[in-house]
Amino acid sequence: MAVRDGIVKRGKTWSYVVRVKDPETGLSKPRWVGGFASEADAKAARDQARVTARSGQYVNRSPVTVSSYLDQWIEAHAVQVKPKTLQDYRHLIDRHVKPRIGGMRLQAVRPAQITKLYRDLLTEGGRSCAGLSPRTVEYVHAVLRKAFRDAVLIDQLLPSNPVERAKRPRNPARERGEIWTAGQLRVFLDVARRHRLFAFFHLAAYTGARRGELLNLRWRDVDLARPEIRISGSAAVIGGTRIEGTTKSGRSRTVSIDAGTVQVLKEHHARQAAELLAAGPEWIGGDEYVFSTGWGGPVHPDTVSSLIGDLIRAHNATMGDCAGELLPHARLHDLRHIHATTLLLAGVPVHVVAARLGHADPSVTLRVYAHVIRDQVAAAADIFARSIPADDGPAVSKSVSKNAATEERDGR
Q1: What span, in angstroms and rounded, lies between the C-alpha atoms of 187 and 312?
Q2: Can you say whether the dihedral through the CA atoms of 31, 33, 38, 40 is positive or negative?
Q3: Largest CA distance in the chain
């Protein structure tokens, strides 16, 4: 077996050897890598290995595939991310990544193959071979970028991250659709007032809290004297099981409430107490959750999400041909957007709005509500102009002339 310039044939395959410095001892040791189908393939791999060895970025050859690595990566993250986020990761990987590049060896993945993955998902990645939206492909990119970054920095299976160099699809910034006006919100709340969960929609609109945060709210978190509510966690249903955890940012926050909201919560608490008495031994919960079912159990998140649509349709059905009084379609999450947009347009500082919404960084608020910020920027010139007294022309000219004459007389 003759070795020529680090290349040797073993049976039907070719191998190469490269010397790699041990970072702990500083000693150089030979590393053999085999399994190449041709001499040319072995030489190309050898040349790349030499470059990475000289720069201290050499990694041992590994047979691990994309699928097996992503499975390991997901398991390692099971205790680090929220259950709902983990479920989303699994869905994206199992449905969109594994069927296309899962069988590839992790170390063989190149930026061009990731780019092709994105292109295929855009054209035929959805159901019935329809293309996925750029936003969904962007989510796939975000997950792969995290996973491959860990393959570089933590597991040291890759010298660099091919996902970072892939060309991902353009996702043009979309303007947020029109949200309800203050009048439309009032109409909706008047419609919802007849429902036992009216207080939920009122609190969502008047605090900007997320669905899961409100469904996790306990009466011990409500202080009607101060008045404020403390948002310390969130609830979701995953695989039919209710899961309670921290908020999206991982932090608790206190949100002030107005006098009208205090009254709404008092009435809601009285109604809930009446339901408890009516249910008697059938009541399955204590006086714990602010929002519960008619028999005391926690409300399923999908219930309130679908209920807002039901209430809008019920209202519109009663309006008949009165198009001007119809409520446009809205999602539950839009109540949060109404809250934030109303505050920003009223001139409330961004950092205050961010604190109410539970954004960890005001930059998140700036990005999400950039359209509102642009409206304020456009109005800034007029606001400044209105704050300065109008130019009175002649009076100013006389003052200037008088000052000039005085300076000339004094020799200044």
Answers
A1: 10
A2: negative
A3: 108
At 241 the three-state DSSP class reads strand
| pTM exceeding the 0.85 threshold for the entire prediction | no
How, if at all, do strands 13-21 and 7-10 pair?
A: antiparallel
Distance CA 236, CA 85 (A): 11
Residue 369 CB burial class (10 angstroms; 0-12, 13-18, ≥19): buried
Instruction: Name 206's Cβ contacts closer than 8 Å, sequence gap at least 6.
Output: 257, 258, 260, 261, 339
Burial of 397 (0-12, 13-18, 19+ CB in 10 A): exposed
Give the span between the Cα atoms of 45 and 242, in whole angstroms.
51
b/e per residue 347-367 (b: at least 16 CB within 10 A):
eeebeebbebbbbeebeebbe
Block residue for tokens 């936003």: 135
- Reading the chain (412 residues) residue by residue, the pLDDT tens digits are 567 778 888 888 888 888 877 666 777 778 777 778 888 888 888 887 787 777 666 666 778 999 999 999 999 887 777 888 888 999 999 999 999 999 999 988 999 999 999 999 999 887 777 888 888 999 999 999 999 999 988 887 888 899 999 988 776 555 455 688 889 999 999 999 999 999 999 999 999 999 999 999 999 999 999 999 999 999 998 878 888 988 988 899 999 999 999 999 999 999 999 999 998 888 887 778 999 999 899 999 999 999 999 999 999 988 866 666 789 999 999 999 999 999 988 889 999 999 999 998 888 888 888 877 776 666 777 777 877 876 655 544 444 445 544 555 555 5
Token pair 């008619």 in the structure block, residue: 294
290 vs 157: CA distance, rounded Å: 49
Q: How many CA atoms lie within 13 A of 109 on its CB side?
A: 36
CA 265 – CA 270 distance, rounded (Å): 9
Q: Helix, strand or coil for residue 61?
A: coil
Measured CA to CA, the distance from residue 174 to residue 99 in angstroms comes to 30
What tokens were used for 191?
A: 């419609």
